[in-house]
Write a structure and sequence with these properties.
This protein is of the alpha/beta class. It has one domain: Rossmann fold, CATH 3.40.50. Helices cover about 45% and strands about 15% of the residues. The chain is built from six helices and five strands. It has a five-stranded parallel beta sheet, sandwiched between helices. Helix 2 packs antiparallel against helix 6.
Length: about 170
């Protein structure tokens, strides 16, 4: 069984992420969406919330599983018995960083392969950071995220607004 591990913080999970998962699900027997636990980041959503948003967004894909990991990606590859890492490239600037990461991962584990995919043109400009900024300033973001992520973002923004008014 050929498994690919798609790592990220997914805060929030976007249509760009979903696009890659859907396309990878046609190429691999199993896609593991690996939510990273990164203590240096201050995510808008908890690990459990991110996992649930992704599960609900990918519920139509029967060969997709959501997992969490902490630490080195090369260790996660071994733990989850994946054959490759999936990474998305939106722009040329992404490529330089992703190439360095792929080469470093291979230097740590020589059988660690990285597969790069480009998003569809409709999603090439979407990033989690920009979606959060637009949402926080009251802009329209629902066209950038799957419905479960849009609902979660709307709830979180409402919670933040309620805290401000106290």
């Amino acid at each position: 069984m050929k498994k690919v591990l798609y790592p990220g913080s997914f805060d929030p999970f976007t249509n760009g992420h979903l696009d890659l998962v859907e396309r990878a699900s046609r190429l691999f027997d199993q896609v593991l969406v690996a939510v990273a636990i990164n203590l240096e980041k201050n995510p808008m959503f908890s690990l459990e919330e991110r996992e649930e948003i992704i599960r609900r967004s990918c519920s139509h894909l029967h060969n997709v599983e959501v997992v969490a990991f902490r630490g080195l990606l090369v260790d996660a590859i071994e733990i989850f018995e994946a054959q490759a890492i999936l990474r998305g490239l939106r722009a040329f600037s992404d490529f330089e960083y992703e190439l360095q990461m792929a080469l470093m991962n291979r230097s740590l584990r020589n059988n660690c392969e990285t597969v790069f995919m480009m998003p569809s043109a409709d999603n090439s400009y979407v990033s989690s950071r920009m979606v959060k900024q637009i949402a926080c300033f009251g802009g329209r973001f629902d066209h950038c995220v799957p419905p479960p992520a849009a609902a979660a973002l709307q709830r979180r923004i409402a919670e933040m607004e309620a805290e401000k008014s106290l």
